[in-house]
Amino acid sequence: MLDVDFVRSQFPAFSEQSLEGQAFFENAGGSYTSAQVIDRLTRFYRERKVQPYAPYRASELGGAEMDEARARLAALMGVETDEVSFGPSTTQNTYILAQAFRQWMDPGDAIIVTNQDHEANSGPWRRLAEDGIEIREWKIDPETGHLDPEKLMELLDDRVRLVCFPHCSNVVGEINPVAKITALAHAAGAFVCVDGVSYAPHGLPDVGGMGADIYLFSAYKTYGPHQGIMVIRRNIGTMLPNQGHYFNGDSLYKRFTPAGPDHAQVAASAGMVDYIEALAAHHGIMGETPVATGAAVHDLMRDHEEKLLQPLLDYAASKNSVRLIGPTDAAKRAPTVALVANAPGEALAAQLASHGVMAGGGDFYANRALEGMNVDTDHGVLRVSFVHYTSENEVQKLIAALDAVL
């Protein structure tokens, strides 16, 4: 069982006076930052804020910490160190990848996208239609938001080069079977690009084990700094045209980062692994490999989240005036819950604020998903989202606040 008191002790926000009495339920927009990350970031700015990889002590230490972040994150996700790249955001990283595919693909080739995605893993790929690339849309069920793998099979043929889909949607919340979808795409000769932004905060996945060719997520939603993190497996990463400086073309982790990375934030990302390892140590988890440790911590997080999520889903499903988007079974989804009510989402979020609940309202850059489920994007949804550091008392506070405003 997750020790929530220990977890919350690792996040300075929970002892911050300005946040006292506030229950945070907009974690899908960005999580609190762990102390380990903050400490590394502060140390870098104080002691290492020089150009890294030069032959003097401060520079050597700064470069070593950047390398450490890449190596430890890669080990946790079951991939090679140079298959992990950092960029300013997941949206930016996806745009760069799309430009590489634009150069690599031929007119008449096809890319499959979904209307379940955040626009970051949809819009950049759709723009390739300008160069004669066929864009095929894998549509969600308009009632449930579900992506049916059988429907994907109807879109796959030997012209498809890439299938883009989310690990889970930031409004539907349903966890998609990445390994199964990846296997279907690979069998048809296509690569996959998985948007993991809404899933990674609930436990970093074993990307190597899932078989995904590209996996993207955001560190600032995963207890870290504002960086986008990309896993690009070697076979596809070396096949695509270099998007970086020509003299960096032989370095896999530099091929898709044309701009210089934020050195301090890259280095601080090692604190994300420090935090996961601290959780493992406190709970007596002794994984034989980093992947095993990460998997055990993932399960610890998910068990706690599911326990807290089910009462919230049951409550939402019982309200006749509310439409709950996505599955009603906590085991099938992330604790990112979108609700359609009579009042606009933003207005409801404002009302919740007066009850000490921090939540969000709007379209959340998931316009295509909401439109696909016949939700007015101007009206929007109320979204309440949490992670493993959320307490049972906070969920009860949320339900009481919802009862007052819905």
Question: What key attributes describe this structure?
Answer:
406 residues; 7-stranded mixed beta sheet; alpha/beta; globular; 39% helix
Q: What is the rounded Rg?
A: 21 Å
Helical proportion? 25-40%
Helix tally equals: 15
> What is the subunit organization of this protein?
single chain
Write down the overall geometry: globular
Mean pLDDT: 97
Summarize the main sheet: 7 strands, mixed
- List segments where confidence is low: pLDDT < 50 over at least 5 consecutive residues: none
Topology:
Blueprint: H1 4-9, E1 23-24, H2 35-48, H3 57-77, E2 84-87, H4 90-104, E3 110-114, H5 123-126, E4 134-138, H6 149-153, E5 160-166, H7 178-187, E6 191-195, H8 207-210, E7 214-218, E8 228-232, H9 234-237, H10 263-268, H11 270-282, H12 290-318, E9 323-324, E10 336-340, H13 345-353, E11 357-358, E12 360-362, H14 367-372, E13 381-385, H15 392-405
Parallel strand pairs: 1-11, 3-4, 3-5, 5-6, 6-7
Antiparallel strand pairs: 2-8, 7-8, 9-10, 10-13, 12-13
Helix pairs in contact: 2-11, 3-11, 3-12, 11-12, 12-15
3D architecture notes:
It is a single chain. The protein is an alpha/beta fold and 406 residues long. The protein is built from 15 helices and 13 strands. It has helices spanning 4-9, 35-48, 57-77, 90-104, 123-126, 149-153, 178-187, 207-210, 234-237, 263-268, 270-282, 290-318, 345-353, 367-372, 392-405, and strands at 23-24, 84-87, 110-114, 134-138, 160-166, 191-195, 214-218, 228-232, 323-324, 336-340, 357-358, 360-362, 381-385. The protein has a 7-stranded mixed β-sheet with strand order 2-8-7-6-5-3-4, sandwiched between helices. It has a 4-stranded antiparallel β-sheet with strand order 9-10-13-12. The longest helix has 29 residues, at 290-318. The chain is globular. The model has no long low-confidence stretch (mean pLDDT 97).
